[in-house]
Each structure stands twice: as C-alpha cells, then as structure tokens.
Write a structure and sequence with these properties.
With 57 residues, the protein is mainly α. The protein is 79% helix and 0% strand.
Length: 57
Amino acid sequence: MGGVLPSLLLILAGVLVGGAWSLHKQGAPRGAVIVTALLAVLATAAGVLWMLPGEGA
C-alpha cells in the first residue's frame, strides 16, 4: 500500500480543486470556496509529504 495512499490523496486533491473552481464559477459563498480550496491544499501536501523518504526508508 506504499504508493496507493499518496496517489489517492493526489486524486482527491484534483477533485477538490475542480470542486473549488466549480463553486467559484457558480457564485457560491466565499467561505465554501475557501474551505474546499484549503482541503485541496492539505490533500496535496499530505500526498507529496507521504512520498518523501523518512525514517522507514
């Protein structure tokens, strides 16, 4: 499962970026767009950091 979880996190990040963009285009409240975009950033950071070598490498 070493490479599956980071890939899923990056896929989730892409879906969230698309969702944030869609919310923005539809005129959703700014808070909803910001929360969705923040979740996308967190998912991206988690996916990238998970792939970095760490103590177990």
